[in-house]
Amino acid sequence: MGEEEYLVEMTGIVKKFPNVVANDNACFTLRRGEVHALLGENGAGKTTLMNVLYGIYRPDAGEIKVYGKPVDIRGPKDAIQLGIGMVHQQFKLIPVHTVLENVVLGIKQTGFIINTRKISQDLSQMISSYGWKISPEARVWQLSAGEKQQVELLKALYRRARILIMDEPTSVLTPQETSILFKTLRKMAAEGIGVVLITHKLDEVMAVSDRVTVMRAGRTVATKPTRETNVEDLVNMMIGRPLIKIQTPRVVARNKPVLEVSSLVVLNDKGLEAVRRVSFKLYEGEILGVAGVSGNGQQELLEAIAGMRKAVSGRVFLNSLDITNRHPLEIINAGVAYIPAESLRYSAPDMTVAENLFLKAYRLKEFSKGFLINWLNLEEKSKQLTIDFNMVTPSTRNKVGNLSGGNVQRLVLARELETIPDLKVILAGYPTRGLDIASTEFIHQMLLKKTGQGVAVLLVSEELEELMSLSDRIMVMYKGEVVGVLERGRYDLEEIGLMMTGVRREEVSA
């Protein structure tokens, strides 16, 4: 097809890394004026394929056509000259610079003397045409996550991009910001821009895309018009089976709290208040979800409860035992597990799978006596855990640094859930962040299994659907404070989204 039909045609793309074939004869097309969703599990090759299109990687085989003509994209500079823009999951902005300065950075056409007045007028017109509220003179550090994303889009639009790649664009957005983004993408498509949407959220695919391509194990499984498919069909193509339906958590008898936090104040790494007088109670067998845009004190809250960060004031009680600012080992021995957001950071990459699994439990009599470790028992238990948690590893003696992100997360999950005696509370910080559908489903099932055994879960997540399906209550945090708590049966997506921007529940209800 020519320029009128396809903006991009990728055929037979092969990209190899040491011991891994990331793209195996993969194919992809992008039409003018469409939003095309690209789906696949972790490691399916979708981001690699788009990195090839943007020039970050060079393919080992295959052909790329842009506007109907074969091209050799040797780097991002070539891609930009072809009218290809990419908005990465982690924004590439300079916080102390203005919106205008970030947009024009690296553009040679501006010349030695930059006509800021003319550029500001052009940007203001673009901003107005998309219904945005940002100012070209605003400093990036002053902007919300959604507004920073708009700056990234401005950068691409100002360079006259006709092909736009969006990598997991809603991962840091509130529902309201997501809605604004989708309107923007539809407007761009109406203007003839082709948009590639890399996402793992199936509801977003159904809501905003025209076509969808599914990848598995580096290959293109299928490309379909979105109106001719559904969520169940897409899941089957991605993982080869239907998803297990999440069972509604059982009714929780709120008699005596397992965990009680009272007026807790915690500082962040810069010495500023990250948690501001937070109080709540968590009951046996309950999942208390914590909603909020990342960076609003959730991480510091978990770390303070786990003993990994000092509380300035306030108290933390575990079954009436004061564990405030206790050593992490004391808190672990008391029955508290911590599933961190950055699983690799809380593992030892140069140590084996077996060694990592028992970093917290090697002291137990079952696995050690004095200074001697019972390696036979430890290896046997490790093998069983790799089976139970579906870890893909050649052996338990394989180094953790060789595992994929999803397998490291499963390892950490196994360590926290199965090696702590008398487990009472699980602190789960973004346990499914960046994971594919199958891994996410597995973690949900494990958390629900533990609540069925009476374990309480404090679940921090940016995924509102995850919180709404799993939680018995949802607590919303904004700038370190609790702005409201909602009971199951009274969840409202728009209300939670407003609370995530700082609107208190009484203001929402008014």
TrEMBL record:
Q: What is this protein called?
A: ABC transporter ATP-binding protein
Q: Identify the main location.
A: membrane
Q: Which organism is it from?
A: Caldiarchaeum subterraneum
User: How does the record say this protein sits in the membrane?
Assistant: Peripheral membrane protein
Superkingdom classification of source:
Archaea
Task: Fetch the PROSITE patterns from UniProt.
Answer: ABC_TRANSPORTER_2
Signal sequence extent: none
As for subcellular location, the record says:
Cell membrane
Q: Which CDD domains does the protein's record reference? A: ABC_Carb_Monos_I (cd03216), ABC_Carb_Monos_II (cd03215)
The UniProt keyword set, sorted, is: ATP-binding, Cell membrane, Membrane, Nucleotide-binding, Repeat, Translocase, Transport
Q: Which GO terms describe its cellular component?
A: plasma membrane
Q: Where is the ABC transporter domain?
A: 8-242, 259-504
UniProt xrefs under InterPro entries: AAA+_ATPase, ABC_carbohydrate_import_ATPase, ABC_transporter-like_ATP-bd, P-loop_NTPase
A GO molecular function term, named singly, is: ATP hydrolysis activity
